[in-house]
Amino acid sequence: MDWTVVQNSLPMFEKGFWLTLRLSFFGIIGAGVLGLICSFIQYFKVPVLRKLVTAYVELSRNTPLLIQLFFLFYGLPQVGIKFSAEVCGIIGIIFLGGSYMAEGFSGGLAGVSKTQIESGLAIGLSRFQLARYVIFPQGLMLSVPAFAANVIFLIKETSIFTVLAIPELTNTALDLIGMYYNTNEYLFMLVVAYAIILIPLSILLTWLEKKVRYGTFGN
Amino acid sequence: MGHSGISIFFEGANFLRLLGGLYVSAKIAFLSIFFGGILGIVLGVLRTLHNPLLRLLLRLYLEFFRIVPTIVLLFLFYYILPQSFNINYKADTVGTIVFSLWMAAEMSDIVRGALISVPMHQVESGKAIGLSTVQLYRYVLVPQSVHLMIPATINLMTRIIKTTSLLLLISVVDVINVGQQIIEANSHRYQDGAFWVYGFIFILYFILCYPLSRLARRLERRGKAGANG
Amino acid sequence: MAEPLLKVEHLKKSYGEKRVLEDISFEVEEGSVVVLLGPSGSGKSTLIRCLNGLEAFQGGTIMFNGETVRPSPKNWRRLRQQIGMVFQSYDLFPNMTVLENILLGAVKVQKRKRDEAARQAMSLLKEVGMEQYANAYPRQLSGGQKQRVAIVRALELNPKLMLFDEVTASLDPEMVRGVLEIILRLAREKMTMIVVTHEMNFARQIGDKILFLEDGKILEETPGRQFFTKPQTERAKSFLESMDF
């Protein structure tokens, strides 16, 4: 392992690192919002939209991100819609992530215990109040583990952006390999870079899970 | 301006070539699922044994495959392995190895999770009538946890199938690669070839994965109902 | 003689093919306590849950406070402010403090002013010995403490009728007594109550009237004193014997 190579390439990896984080951040927020909206639609069984959401979730969960990206970046321009590579990436993450988030939130909402709901009904809460004071707060707490898993999953998926030549981490490494051939060093740094993001994040999310789980076991 | 790209599919052997590419993807997927599945079950059982060193090692193995994105894994194995171990495998084989190991890692977690959820008193009852460790697993633990493993395993299979899409990056001639070639070859004649070809591949993956998803969902629901009996 | 607070006539309920409540009829006078006794699966819980709309019924009528209950979500919502219920699982809302749990119904459903509701809440908490826990979260409380808060939460709405569904069944023995004493006190204060319980001593102390159920039917309706010394039916007799009475 040639450490000078490692040192020299640090600046480039740093840029890729921040880009990966930025793209992940926007993608995850977008996916989270989309997922939340979809899970509400499913929970309240909104008539037409509900079918749409189901179709969307099935479509996005059963197709690879890679294809979604290719379709967005190469296919759409041919029918007139053109996005930059980075925008395609974020759209792809939001599209894919949204369905995973929706499933996570739906699971959480459905997991609120029946007896909690009955307690709410017994003090005269309306359906809306029940949702607002009992089901949503507890449902969101129950969704945290799934949310955590999705966050980690989506950050890893950004590595696929490399196919659109977006200079995130994986692309940086592959680029450098293509130019200087120091495969060992660059792949090592790549793995370390992802570890730096994902290991602390994983620990943080596990801590969050534990802290929040307390609440639902309050009975 | 050129014909509508949808006619690409009626041109020559394009359609068959796409299916051929799909066959390659599917083959690697199912081989990986098969080998990885078996290995995963074994590893999962091993992870529940009371050997801290073994469990730590296997845990590290799992976490490694969880932290590193699959693309990076593919490149690691494709570029570094040949150098370090002086073996040279075809891209297809490398892909199968990587996916098998990944499948095994995730599978071991599913298996372990299901096994440790069997209530302790079931295990104790088994021990009380003198069952050996092997018998415990065979007659008590495995039968009571299998139904938990199935939906998660099917979802894992779906994920593997989807991720085979990355194989083209290590030059496996899979369905997407074939698609790209077709688009290239026909770009002058069909302006919107990319739209149709990628759209089609999109649908192919969907057709492949959706039945599995639904099966998993149905089994999960039935499993829950049975467990609450 | 005053009109009974609650009058149930020919109530019927089925789960699909299975009949779980058969021709249930009884009355509850205001200020009295009715205890539902019976073996497991006799329909006691189902019956009491029908009385505040948590279970639907397919036949018969319920008259509460002179009004025939027309089962609709809106009606039940209104009635539930007058019919309080405490469950076996004392489900307090985990994301709120004790005080917030209690005030939720008063402020958001009955639209009362927060100060007034809080004053009542604190005074009720004091009566059950929980006033220092007003700002605690449910997870910090023991089962018995949670159940006391659950009772206060129901009382805060000033109900005319209180329903208790096996409220001590999930508690450790030491805590059972504390909770039962609270219910006894409510009886002395002439709160109209219907209680489902397995605690025979408690039932004897508190029951003005005993309804003994089996297989969804009322086998016996007997004044409290009499039931425990001289039950009318053989079935009740063997039930009491099996419970060491």
Automatic annotation (TrEMBL), chain A:
One biological process term in Gene Ontology: amino acid transport
PROSITE patterns: ABC_TM1 (PS50928)
Primary localization class, coarse: membrane
TM stretches of this protein: 20-44, 90-112, 133-155, 186-208
Lipid bilayer topology: Multi-pass membrane protein
Limits of the ABC transmembrane type-1 domain: 17-209
Pfam annotation, one family: BPD_transp_1
Compartments, record wording: Cell membrane
GO molecular function: transmembrane transporter activity
Keywords: Amino-acid transport, Cell membrane, Membrane, Transmembrane, Transmembrane helix, Transport
InterPro entries: AA_ABC_transptr_permease_3TM (IPR010065), ArtM/GltK/GlnP/TcyL/YhdX-like (IPR043429), MetI-like (IPR000515), MetI-like_sf (IPR035906)
Family recorded in the similarity comment: Belongs to the binding-protein-dependent transport system permease family. HisMQ subfamily.
PANTHER family per record: AMINO-ACID ABC TRANSPORTER PERMEASE PROTEIN YHDX-RELATED, MEMBRANE COMPONENT OF AMINO ACID ABC TRANSPORTER
Name recorded for this polypeptide: Polar amino acid ABC transporter inner membrane subunit
Gene source species: Heyndrickxia coagulans
TrEMBL record, chain B:
CDD domains for this protein: TM_PBP2
Domain ABC transmembrane type-1: 22-216
Family stated for the protein in its record: Belongs to the binding-protein-dependent transport system permease family.
Source organism phylogeny: Bacteria, Bacillati, Bacillota, Bacilli, Bacillales
A Pfam family: BPD_transp_1
Protein name: ABC transporter, permease protein
Organism: Heyndrickxia coagulans (Weizmannia coagulans)
GO molecular function, one term: transmembrane transporter activity
Localization, UniProt: Cell membrane
From TrEMBL, chain C:
Classification via PROSITE patterns: ABC_TRANSPORTER_1 (PS00211), ABC_TRANSPORTER_2 (PS50893)
Alphabetized GO MF terms: ABC-type amino acid transporter activity; ATP binding; ATP hydrolysis activity
Keyword Isomerase recorded: no
Sorted UniProt keywords: ATP-binding, Nucleotide-binding, Transport
Location of the ABC transporter domain: 6-240
Record Pfam families: ABC_tran
Residues forming coiled coils: none
SUPFAM superfamilies assigned: P-loop containing nucleoside triphosphate hydrolases
Similarity comment text for this entry: Belongs to the ABC transporter superfamily.
PANTHER family to which the protein is assigned, alphabetical: AMINO ACID IMPORT ATP-BINDING PROTEIN, PHOSPHONATES IMPORT ATP-BINDING PROTEIN PHNC
UniProt-recorded name of the protein: ABC transporter-like protein
The species this protein was found in: Heyndrickxia coagulans
